[in-house]
């Protein structure tokens, strides 16, 4: 059994659902006990303070579960959805709905007929990793709103998987959008957030099938990318470009150059063995940057959520900013991560600041928040990872160079 003494368990499935759907003006209902959504809004959803709550709990009491007061639940959701003037309702499962066999699909049909608004169910159990919950939510959103006959955009691109639990503040992705624009592409849909400057948050979802390319920036977006390749023939690039080398490789992939060779490092960091702990897409982007921008050859990635989706090799994936090493592994076990961090050969650790509590050795620690771990605690921390800004942040930490660009 896993034991947690210094850390909390990572966010789970319905947290991923709320993260994926938060910015689309819908109502996410977590089918759980009274107060079930409070910890999402207060702790894990820093965007909550912008306006009315997007995530609410079913407010189930013990007798509701025992007696099956379905009418009470449905009536509450109908009144809440109408009162908040939401554009859709998404029902997300929890361990309670899984154990007692709640018919959330039936609830969705009933609520849809009584509200005249789109309603869908996301089949989460509450025990799966948060990227799986987000992935299921994005697929459900696509099924409900994507227009198969959307007009074609020959230079259009969708960004998939940009959920705040993995990527943090939207501003961290600004360098990514700037680089995409420099290659001639224009964002069509950003599934997990509105397209920058787009008035209608769901319009990008409707128009997404007309794009020419998908950019997957976390594992949460991979299943949707695979689905869109199967249904619409849209290829995708998977990876989070970090640093100067990451930017150049990413631009090459977007432009169809699969055999791109990165330039030799122009800086050499005084570290020999680096451990990167966190979300795998960003983790392997950091590995690529440390290898090719800073000349560090031994970089091990510890993925705290499953990394296998990145390496499935399915059709449609035209490029990957990742290379799995023999010493890379998937684990969220606190004891195992602590042991790896304190290996005498490790002289640099890059991870969410919460993991600093596990470090007892002499390795340098570089903080890089993972919102699924530390929630709002480090939301406003001054850090970057994407493209040039990511290189500058890492250079300031590894080389003490505050003017790096």
Largest sheet: 5 strands, parallel
Quote the CATH topology of the domain at 13-145: Rossmann fold
Do you know the CATH architecture of the domain at 13-145?
Answer: 3-Layer(aba) Sandwich
Reading side by side through the largest sheet, how are the strands ordered? 6-5-7-8-11
Distance between the termini: 45 Å
Overall number of strands: 14
Summed up, the helix count is 16
Structural class: alpha/beta
Secondary-structure element order, N to C:
HEHEHHEHHEHEHHEHEHEHEHEEEHEEHH
**Low-pLDDT segments:** none
CATH class of the domain at 13-145: Alpha Beta
Gyration radius over CA: 21 Å
Q: What is the approximate shape?
A: globular
Helix content: 25-40%
Percent of residues in β-strands: 5-15%
Average pLDDT reading: 86
| Name given to the CATH homologous superfamily of the domain at 13-145 | Nitrogenase molybdenum iron protein domain
Question: Can you describe this structure in just a few lines?
Answer:
The protein is built from 16 helices and 14 strands. It is an alpha/beta fold and 405 residues long. Among the domains are: 13-145, Rossmann fold (3-Layer(aba) Sandwich); 262-312 and 320-398, Rossmann fold (3-Layer(aba) Sandwich), CATH 3.40.50.
Care to describe what's here?
This protein is of the alpha/beta class. Among the domains are: 13-145, Rossmann fold, CATH 3.40.50.1980; 262-312 and 320-398, 3-Layer(aba) Sandwich (Rossmann fold). Helices cover 37% and strands 15% of the residues. The protein contains 16 helices and 14 strands. It has helices spanning 13-21, 38-44, 62-67, 70-84, 95-100, 104-115, 130-145, 164-167, 174-182, 203-207, 222-232, 243-254, 280-292, 334-341, 371-374, 387-398, and strands at residues 27-30, 55-57, 89-92, 119-122, 156-160, 186-191, 213-216, 236-238, 273-278, 298-303, 317-320, 329-330, 348-351, 364-367. The strands form 3 sheets. A 5-stranded parallel sheet has the order 6-5-7-8-11, sandwiched between helices. Strands 12-10-9-13-14 form a 5-stranded parallel sheet, with helices on both faces. It is globular, with a radius of gyration of 21 Å. The termini are far apart.
């Amino acid at each position: 059994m896993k034991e947690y003494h210094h850390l909390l368990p990572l966010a789970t499935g319905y947290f991923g659902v709320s993260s994926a759907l938060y910015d689309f003006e819908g109502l996410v209902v977590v089918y759980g006990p009274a107060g079930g959504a409070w910890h999402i809004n207060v702790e894990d959803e820093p965007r909550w303070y912008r306006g009315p709550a997007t995530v609410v709990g079913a407010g189930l009491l013990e007798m509701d579960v025992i007696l099956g007061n379905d009418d009470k639940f449905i009536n509450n959701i109908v009144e809440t959805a109408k009162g908040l003037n939401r554009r859709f309702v998404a029902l997300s499962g929890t361990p309670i709905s899984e154990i007692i066999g709640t018919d959330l699909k039936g609830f969705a049909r009933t609520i849809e007929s009584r509200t005249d608004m789109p309603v869908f169910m996301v089949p989460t159990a509450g025990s799966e990793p948060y990227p799986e919950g987000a992935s299921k939510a994005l697929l459900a959103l696509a099924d409900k709103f994507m227009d198969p006959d959307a007009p074609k955009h020959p230079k259009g691109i969708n960004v998939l998987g940009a959920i705040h639990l993995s990527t943090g503040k939207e501003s961290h992705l600004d360098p990514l959008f700037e680089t995409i624009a420099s290659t001639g592409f224009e964002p069509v849909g950003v599934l997990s957030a509105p397209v920058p400057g787009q008035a209608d948050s769901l319009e990008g979802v409707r128009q997404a099938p007309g794009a020419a390319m998908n950019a997957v920036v976390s594992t949460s977006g991979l299943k949707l990318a695979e689905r869109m390749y199967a249904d619409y023939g849209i290829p995708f690039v998977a990876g989070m470009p970090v640093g100067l080398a990451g930017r150049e490789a990413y631009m090459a992939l977007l432009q169809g150059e699969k055999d791109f060779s990165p330039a030799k490092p122009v800086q050499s960091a005084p570290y020999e063995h680096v451990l990167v702990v966190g979300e795998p897409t960003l983790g392997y982007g950091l590995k690529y940057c440390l290898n090719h921008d800073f000349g560090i050859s031994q970089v091990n990635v510890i993925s705290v959520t499953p990394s296998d989706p990145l390496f499935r090799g399915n059709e449609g994936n035209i490029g990957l900013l990742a290379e799995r090493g023999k010493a890379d592994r998937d684990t969220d076990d606190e004891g195992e991560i602590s042991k790896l961090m304190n290996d005498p050969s490790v002289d640099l650790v890059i991870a969410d600041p919460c993991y600093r509590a596990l470090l007892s050795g002499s390795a340098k620690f570089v903080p890089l928040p993972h919102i699924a771990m530390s929630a709002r605690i480090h939301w406003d921390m001054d850090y970057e990872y994407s493209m040039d800004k990511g290189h500058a942040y890492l250079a300031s930490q590894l080389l003490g160079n505050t003017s790096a660009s």
